[in-house]
């Protein structure tokens, strides 16, 4: 990459930061900034393109040019290369192996939207390759992976945005909720309930032939080697149709081998906002208790005894002892969203509404004009990528940094461990380990399959 290209990309990033996100979103944004040439904009690549991978890519064309895309499914890769070419007028290079993306010196940042079990390996290797990183939530498969990512971010100085968009582009109501709490509108917070919905179990899923377009061995990657399983019924509308039940596309979140069920899916959104509101983004709980829960298969010593059905919890009620005697409940029951209860009131917030007496009272007693900006730490970016690029310019971490994300995700991971083992877990938030429980602590990490170790 020439020195002139480096300068023009830097100027683009500064344009976003200094002009403000609002200007970037207008239809004439590129003309206003004078960035008609691809050389004037930062160069991105996306690794993992199904569903959310395309979603974050398509939202980023305003701010960056995509030089490369990578996916282990040839059909998904080809379709997204075609869509990207139509969007930006230039065809990106296509790779099955993400390492070829990391070898490219012209790529400034990567966006990672693979299944969760791949996140840490790709993210760490990307940072060591000199790339800034945007990675989808949940960031990690285990708690120790989070510690490793923090170490590498600090060591390399790379900018790292986690894709928890409730902190910005889908988060205006959530920012208002935090502002209400910080302004004392419900007094002292005593309880917060995160409704994240449950999930259905699956029938027995038979071994099936691997689709011709899919490199299933590479899809498994760091995870244990197992047969591909799928039922013939198709789920349309998800990247062109995938099996209704499988241990791969779409359904990977329902298997502990690749993800953490609803606890790390929706939990990564609502528990994050709850911790942010409580001022607990740099600490953790003291105890996690599985009050009620249902696992879809039998477990022994924390591991499922069968491998032909979904194994993540389908129903649950988890009690979490948070700092300052706050009780957090994570439940599959009720409305999806967050209920805050304090000594002087309560209110409920989700992506569609914010309701309750403290909200109604804003008509006569509005929040201070700068309340939302104080929560966000400055002018609110209506696009998560814009915030990422602002951070790339300042070399400061963005609104969804790895440290706050990992602290809240520890609660979700511990909740899953507590259900798998069927007991309460006492947590040391300073040492970041489970107290007096060697077996439970063994679940804080997971060894990558041979040949898929993290290259450091």
UniProtKB/TrEMBL annotation:
Highest taxon of the lineage: Bacteria
EC number: 1.1.1.18
Any one GO molecular function term: nucleotide binding
Keyword terms, alphabetized: Oxidoreductase
EC primary class: oxidoreductase
Ranges where the Gfo/Idh/MocA-like oxidoreductase N-terminal domain occurs: 81-163
Ranges where the Gfo/Idh/MocA-like oxidoreductase bacterial type C-terminal domain occurs: 202-453
Classification via NCBIfam families: TAT_signal_seq
Protein name: Gfo/Idh/MocA family oxidoreductase
High-level lineage: Bacteria, Pseudomonadati, Planctomycetota, Planctomycetia, Planctomycetales
């Amino acid at each position: 990459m020439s020195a002139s290209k480096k300068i023009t990309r830097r100027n683009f990033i500064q344009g976003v930061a200094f002009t403000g996100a609002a200007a970037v979103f207008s239809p004439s944004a590129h003309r206003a900034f004078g960035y008609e040439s691809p050389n004037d904009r930062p160069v991105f690549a996306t690794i993992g393109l199904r569903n959310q991978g395309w979603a974050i890519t398509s939202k980023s064309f305003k701010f960056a040019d995509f030089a490369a895309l990578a996916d282990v499914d040839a059909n998904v890769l080809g379709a997204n290369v075609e869509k990207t070419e139509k969007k930006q007028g230039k065809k990106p290079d296509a790779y099955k192996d993400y390492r070829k993306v990391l070898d490219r010196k012209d790529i400034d940042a990567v966006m990672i939207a693979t299944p969760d079990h791949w996140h840490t390996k790709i993210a760490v290797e990307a940072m060591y390759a000199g790339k800034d990183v945007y990675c989808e939530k949940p960031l990690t498969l285990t708690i120790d992976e989070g510690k490793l990512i923090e170490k590498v971010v600090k060591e390399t100085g790379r900018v790292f945005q986690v894709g928890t968009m409730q902190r910005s582009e889908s988060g205006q109501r959530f920012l208002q909720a935090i502002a209400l709490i910080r302004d004392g509108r419900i007094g002292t917070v005593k309880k917060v309930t995160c409704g994240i919905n449950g999930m259905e179990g699956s029938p027995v899923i038979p071994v099936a032939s691997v689709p011709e377009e899919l490199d299933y061995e590479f899809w498994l990657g760091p995870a244990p080697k197992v047969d591909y399983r799928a039922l013939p019924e198709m789920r349309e509308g998800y990247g062109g149709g995938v099996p209704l039940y499988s241990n791969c596309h779409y359904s990977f979140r329902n298997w502990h081998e690749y993800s953490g069920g609803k606890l790390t899916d929706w939990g990564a959104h609502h528990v994050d906002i709850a911790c942010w509101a409580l001022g607990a983004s740099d600490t953790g709980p003291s105890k996690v208790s599985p009050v009620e829960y249902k696992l879809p298969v039998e477990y022994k010593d924390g591991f499922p005894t069968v491998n032909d059905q979904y194994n993540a919890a389908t129903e649950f009620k988890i009690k979490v002892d948070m700092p300052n005697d706050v009780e957090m409940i994570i439940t599959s029951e009720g409305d999806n969203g967050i209920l805050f209860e304090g000594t002087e009131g309560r209110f409920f917030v989700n992506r569609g509404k914010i309701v309750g007496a403290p909200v109604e009272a804003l008509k006569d007693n509005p929040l201070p004009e700068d309340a939302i900006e104080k929560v966000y730490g400055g002018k609110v970016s209506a696009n998560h990528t814009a915030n990422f690029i602002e951070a790339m310019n300042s070399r400061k971490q963005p609104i969804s940094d790895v440290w706050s994300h990992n602290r809240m995700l520890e609660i979700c991971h511990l909740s899953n461990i507590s259900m798998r083992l069927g007991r309460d877990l006492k947590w040391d938030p300073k040492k970041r380990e489970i107290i007096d429980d060697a077996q439970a602590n063994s679940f804080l990490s997971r060894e990558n399959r041979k040949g898929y170790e993290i290259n450091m």
